[in-house]
Amino acid sequence: MDAFVFSDALYNFIFIVFAPKIQSGLLFKNFQDDLLNQTSNKDESINVKQKPRDALMEKINIYMETEVPFIEDSFSIKTMSQSLNVTERQVSTIIKKTYDSNFANFVAKWRLNYIKNMHSSSPEWANFTIEQMAERAGFGSRQTLHKVINRMYNQTPSDFFKEYLK
Fold first, then answer.
1. SS3 at position 67
2. What per-residue confidence (pLDDT) applies to 157?
3. Rounded CA separation 115/73 (Å)
């Protein structure tokens, strides 16, 4: 009888932990990404080194998706590394090797995607000014948003939003 209670509790725990991720597509997206990134058998030695990197990158992505820490303009690599219990160097290295990007650009992309997603899913956001969107996404000001969009896309925020927030 105790084994049945334990297995039932374990099943409920697993369901509670993973059901929201399955519903949001997170687990399936990561599964699909893993399939696309698999190496052939002759590259097995590379794959062994890749596994810890993939695990940390997945941990970073889950953290960014679930905690949405980047909406705070004070969000930093130190904040992320402390939350994930890894070093700043590990975070920096994994972002550089995975996305060929530095931390600031990595966060800026998350913030821009956040604006795009919120604009398309929230009627309230559709009426926000560029300043309001910038502040709510963690940029802090329109000027910071302007610099990021200009650096990354060589556009003004107005042109960027006309193109990407249709």
1. helix
2. 84
3. 14
